Amino acid sequence: MSETLQTRAAERRHDIDWVRLIAFDLLILYHVGMFFVAGKGWHIKNNELSEALLYPMDFINQWRLPILFVISGMGTRFALSQRTGWEFLKKRFQRLVIPLLFGMVVIVAPQVYIERIVQGHAYHSFIDFYPHYFDGIYQKNGGGGNFSWHHLWFLPYLFFIFPGCSAVAYLLARSRQLCVGPKFQVVHKPVSAKSVLVLHPIACHTGISQTSISD
């Protein structure tokens, strides 16, 4: 193993790996539970529903998405320490956008087909339905179309959050305003992108040079 690989292995945060693993395992159980829980809308539901599942489902629902975004943000910070912003975007496109497109065409289509069958729409088979999958944008009742990313929505969100936050970090640095303190007072002083608090890991690796941001 090369020295670089050894260094990266030594720096890997296994605690974060375990948090990610537990979060995604609970996410799978949550989506399975949505099929059986009473009082919550879902694409398709079981004939017999359980009200007892409401309590664990509501508990998980309070933090399942925030913790996933936190973990993704930490992964972004670690990734940016190894590559530039443009390299990161290229890698993100390969890992998020391409799987999203594949999933929408191959994985989500059967899900929408089953949903439409349960709703009483007349399709002889999945082959008969598939051309109609591209008729328009998905609506739950089928009135507007079928094309959807369904549970893959997390992928485009992750992809577009990075350039969006980068733009915000750039504007904050350009305006020379930095929010600090418990009351978030605005301090007027020259700052570089590396001084922008929360957006620091994004701004300083987007390919925007520090000299182009601060005098």
Measured by DSSP, the beta-strand proportion falls in under 5%
User: What is the alpha-carbon Rg in Å?
Assistant: 22 Å
Q: State the low-pLDDT regions, or none.
A: 177-215
User: Structural class, from secondary structure content?
Assistant: mainly alpha
- Mean pLDDT reading: 77
How would you sum up the major sheet? Answer: 2 strands, antiparallel
Give, in order, the helices and strands: HHHHHHHEEH
Strands side by side in the biggest sheet: 1-2
Q: What is the approximate shape?
A: globular
How much helicity do the residues have? 55-70%
Written overview of the protein:
By secondary structure, the chain is mainly α. Among the domains are: 1-62, no CATH class; 160-212, no CATH class. Helix content is 55%, strand content 4%. A hairpin with a 4-residue loop joins strand 1 (177-180) and strand 2 (185-188).
Keywords for this entry:
mainly alpha, two-stranded antiparallel ribbon, 4% strand, 2 strands, 215 residues
Architecture blueprint of SSEs:
Layout: H1 3-11, H2 14-34, H3 54-61, H4 64-80, H5 85-118, H6 126-129, H7 154-175, E1 177-180, E2 185-188, H8 200-203
Antiparallel strand pairs: 1-2
Helix pairs in contact: 2-4, 5-7
